[in-house]
Task: structure prediction
Amino acid sequence: MQYDLKLIFSHFLTGGAFLSAKPLGKGHINDTFLVEAEGGHPAGYVLQRINHFVFRDVPGLTENKVRITQHLLGQLEKEGVEELERRVTQFLPTHEGSYYHRDGQGNYWNLSLYIPDSVVYETVSNPSIAFEGGKAIGAFQRRLSGLDPETLHETIPHFHDVALRLDKFHKVVEADPCRRAADTPAEIAAILAREAEMRAFMALVHSGAIPRRVTHNDTKISNVLFGQDGHALCLIDLDTAMPGTVLSDFGDAIRSGANPGREDDPDLGKVGMDLGIFTAFAEGYLSEALAFLTPTELDYLAFGAKLITYEQFLRFLADYLEGDVYYQKIQHEQHNLQRARAQLKLLESMERQYGEMQRVVNKLGKL
Result:
């Protein structure tokens, strides 16, 4: 689809005149462009179309992003951090004072300052990247620990509520709409064998023993922006930032970053958790997060990796059984089952190393 980017850009308060725009990044959900403007921000601007079919509450989502980034900016200023424009995404308002513009086609857009001389990694190739990534996520959570999560919109309700996902899973297995359950007895059994443990954890979340906090909810390493010197600058892609538990952010970073195989790797021999990467990430994360974590959160930190990997296994398997209704971008009929099997293999690797994972966290928690 073609967009009139010059017209859309003109609705925002920039002080600059549109010169050019080019696609930015590899996102599969939103459309993102780097805009150059005469007389405006010298590094340029990031103009992004927010997919309102995926994110149904764009005004709430935008309000979350602005509230979070403004809070982060205030904390960074208090800490005396230099180069603030490189340490947090800064969104710009429209002439009407809103932080999003809706064009004539019904599309929603927001605009932020581009952070130059930055690097994005697609994989965690060494412990240094893992340490810096963990530190960035820990710092993000620490600086937001004073922001009441109930002031934010829950733009994807019950996003990490594994108990509700299990309830749905049972219904899907019982209905078996695509007659696929008979082909997956081992995978269904693996879900059921761990169900009690996962529901027990969710009971802690629902009771408040594990507190709700402001979380990112998509902590893959490509959402950590790095400087040219190898140090992390900030977290980007805040569309899913909302109330959650810090264990989900920690767990998803491990799930996505400490596995040398792919999320859908057909070669299960390549799939597993690298304990060295886990350790480096935990070191970076806890160097920032120990300042605010409760003892209960610390006790369950390593469990967060198992939780999110189980959740993703559950989601892929349920979607396969249901007929690929959510993860529709599949390369073949059994792609979501292939994804589920890779997540199960990763979960089993974590379970074998769980004692050591806990020892790593306990040791770091006493420093």
Notes: Residues 301-322 form the longest helix (22 residues).
